[in-house]
């Protein structure tokens, strides 16, 4: 299935409350987005899936939540103050701005991609990507600080704190989820490239002799996470090692996990081999020891670092794109998000077949309250059952439960599964357990073709 075009996803995200342009009532702000009621749930589920896999299911990675604003020395020593910039080109005619590396040829020869004029593009200039702010009441250069452009440095400067308090030996990792900020020249493609975004990064510390082996491990492990945990189609993922001239200033080797986005193959996550670049630089500049005793080799070493780093917003975009499908069902369009139940913002929606029967409404509401104690559940009776199913399909709700007139007599309700649109009748007393086990991955078996539940 080819990726849907971006406009369909932008429109669905806006219409159903996943993502809104930031400060929209004032015309928005390029590169900034707000997550609505469903978006915040989906985002939390993506983060929880990553944290579970990278921290909670492993004995060799621990978590951290460092401050966004750090001592500006961090960014001088990390090389970001000197080198974290992109080459930028302006059009003297239409005033549009481009990343030089996005242009298909030298500025002196090509036409402006916006206005089409020739000879109007400036030579590339380096444009610094870090946002500056001031800390404290003084308006002077001493108070200048930066919004972090990556979460990684918070991990490096806490390396000794964490290694000592968590009593970890090599190899071990530190994981962090948090906001990062970059004054991107050309934010765009919806939430693909933002100026404020969230990252999920692990810095995995290894003996220098094991650098290549752990690099290969993390590339494979992260690719497997995208397919097996997030359910992303393997045919829309690929690995792309960086050419030497595109490596970041700290990297010896990097492999991107790319996704077939509507605008073409683009980076979803990067696995970088940062060697001892950061720890060594911080040790030298701070005068603090950032080496450890490695019991296996009997040596004191400054560890090498393998870093799987990804963006939450980009992950959320990928999940939406990959899950989106338009189908024809009985001559009508059905939009469905095939989200894994673990990622779906709402796991189950309860609806009465007849909303003019107070006893069914009351039963449905009570059932939704019971289910809510176990998992995110909703109740809806604001449309016909067919419309309610479609509404839930479009936001990826894996299960709907309908109560009907027969329910009043036999105490059973109908569960309807989103992807197959098949149904099962289940005793209400068994429903919370049944839904909970389905959401945690139990197979859906024995569903009957969709029919109008009794009484329609
Ligand atoms: N610490 C290493 C690092 O930050 P990066 O390749 O610049 O490396 C890692 O970023 C990931 O963060 C990317 O693969 C992408 O998913 C996400 N990311 C980077 N810049 C972004 C932006 N402007 N908007 C959204 N996500 C971004």
* Helix percentage: 25-40%
Number of helices in the DSSP assignment = 13
Distinct ligands, ions and cofactors found in the model = glycyl-adenosine-5'-phosphate
CATH class division of the largest domain: Alpha Beta
Q: Calculate Rg over CA atoms.
A: 26 Å
Structural class: alpha+beta
Largest sheet report? 7 strands, mixed
Strand order of the largest sheet: 3-9-10-16-13-12-11
Residue runs with pLDDT of under 50 for 5 or more positions? none
Question: Tally of extended strands?
Answer: 24
Strand content: 25-35%
Q: How many domain units?
A: 2
Outline: globular
Distance between the termini: 35 Å
- Mean pLDDT rating: 95
Look up the CATH topology of the largest domain: BirA Bifunctional Protein, domain 2
Summarize the structure.
The protein has 456 residues and is an alpha+beta fold. The protein contains 13 helices and 24 strands. The protein folds into two domains: 6-84 and 129-320, BirA Bifunctional Protein, domain 2; 346-449, Anticodon-binding domain (Rossmann fold).
Give a verbal description of the structure:
This protein is α+β, with helices and mostly antiparallel strands. The chain has 2 domains: 6-84 and 129-320, Bira Bifunctional Protein, Domain 2 (BirA Bifunctional Protein, domain 2), CATH 3.30.930.10; 346-449, Rossmann fold (3-Layer(aba) Sandwich), CATH 3.40.50.800. The chain is 29% helix and 28% strand. The radius of gyration is 26 Å and the shape is globular. The two termini are 35 Å apart. The mean pLDDT is 95. Glycyl-adenosine-5'-phosphate binds next to strand 10, strand 13, strand 16 and helix 9.
């Amino acid at each position: 299935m080819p990726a849907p075009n971006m406009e369909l996803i932008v429109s669905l995200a806006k219409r159903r409350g996943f993502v809104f342009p930031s400060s929209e009532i004032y015309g928005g702000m390029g590169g900034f987005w707000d997550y609505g009621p469903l978006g915040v749930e989906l985002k939390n589920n993506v983060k929880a899936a990553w944290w579970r896999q990278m921290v909670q299911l492993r004995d060799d990675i621990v978590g951290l939540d460092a401050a966004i604003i750090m001592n500006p020395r961090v960014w001088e020593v990390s090389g970001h103050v000197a080198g974290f910039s992109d080459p930028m080109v302006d059009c003297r005619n239409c005033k549009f701005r481009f990343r030089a590396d996005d242009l298909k040829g030298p500025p002196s020869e090509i036409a402006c991609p916006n206005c089409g004029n020739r000879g109007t593009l400036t030579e590339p200039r380096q444009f610094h990507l870090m946002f500056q702010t001031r800390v404290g009441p003084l308006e002077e250069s001493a108070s200048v600080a930066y919004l972090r452009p990556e979460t990684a440095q918070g991990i490096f400067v806490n390396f000794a704190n964490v290694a000592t308090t968590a009593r970890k030996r090599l190899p071990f990792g530190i994981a962090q989820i948090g906001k990062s900020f970059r004054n991107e020249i050309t934010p765009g493609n919806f939430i693909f490239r933002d100026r404020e975004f969230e990252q999920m990064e692990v810095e995995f510390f290894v003996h220098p002799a094991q650098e290549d082996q752990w690099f290969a491990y993390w590339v494979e492990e992260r690719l497997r996470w995208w397919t097996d945990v997030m359910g992303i189609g393997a045919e829309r993922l690929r690995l792309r090692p960086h050419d030497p001239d595109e490596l970041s200033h700290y990297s010896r080797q990097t492999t991107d996990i790319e996704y077939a986005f509507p605008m073409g193959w683009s980076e979803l996550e990067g696995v970088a081999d940062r060697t001892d670049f950061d720890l060594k630089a911080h040790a030298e500049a701070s005068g603090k020891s950032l080496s450890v005793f490695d019991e296996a080799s009997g040596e004191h070493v400054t560890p090498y670092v393998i870093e799987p780093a990804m963006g939450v917003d980009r992950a959320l975009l990928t999940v939406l794109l990959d899950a989106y499908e338009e189908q024809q069902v009985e001559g009508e369009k059905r939009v469905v998000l095939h989200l894994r139940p673990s990622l779906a913002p709402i796991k189950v929606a309860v609806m009465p077949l007849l909303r003019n029967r107070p006893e069914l409404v009351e039963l449905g509401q009570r059932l939704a309250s019971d289910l809510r104690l176990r998992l995110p559940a909703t109740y809806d009776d604001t449309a016909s059952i067919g419309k309610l199913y479609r509404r839930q399909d479009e936001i990826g709700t894996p299960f709907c439960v309908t109560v009907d007139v027969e329910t009043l007599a036999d105490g059973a309700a109908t569960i309807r599964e989103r992807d197959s649109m098949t149904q099962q009748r289940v005793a209400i007393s068994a429903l919370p357990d049944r839904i909970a086990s389905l959401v945690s991955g139990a197979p859906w078996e024995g569903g009957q073709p969709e029919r109008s539940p009794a009484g329609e």
